[in-house]
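Support request, please re-run this one:
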Amino acid sequence: MLSTGTEWVVDAYGCDAWKLTQKQVVTSVCEEVISDLQLSVVGVPQWHQFPGPAGVTGLYLLSESHLACHTYPEHRLLTLNLYCCRERSDWDWEHQLMTRVECERVIVRKFARGTALLDMSHTEDLS
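Re-run finished. Output below.
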C-alpha cells in the first residue's frame, strides 16, 4: 500500500493544570518525542505562551514534516499532532505523558496518510 506518511493525533486528559502552563515542561515533552524518534528539526521551534496562567502552543518544522502541541490548562488537556512522511516506530505516548504531565488518560489515533492515491486516476478532480 502506498502511503505518504503517518500521522499521530494525541489527546491527554486530566493533566496537571500547572504543568500545562509551563513552557519548559511542554517543550521537554516535544523534544523527547523528537529525540526518541530521531526526527530532524528545521529552523527554530516556534512557541507562544498565552498571558496569565494559561496554556502554550508550540510548532516544530521537521524535515519529516511537523510536530504541533497545544495545552489547555483550564480543561487539563494536552493535544499533540505528529506527522512523519517517513516510517517511524510508535512512541509510548501513554507512559511518557502520564509521567511528564501526570495525565489520567491518553487517546492516540494513528492514520496512514495519502493511501487514497492508489485509487485515484490522474485526471480526477481533487476539489
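Strands lie at 5-13, 46-49, 56-62, 65-72, 77-84, 105-113. Residues 38 and 88 are 9 Å apart (CA to CA).
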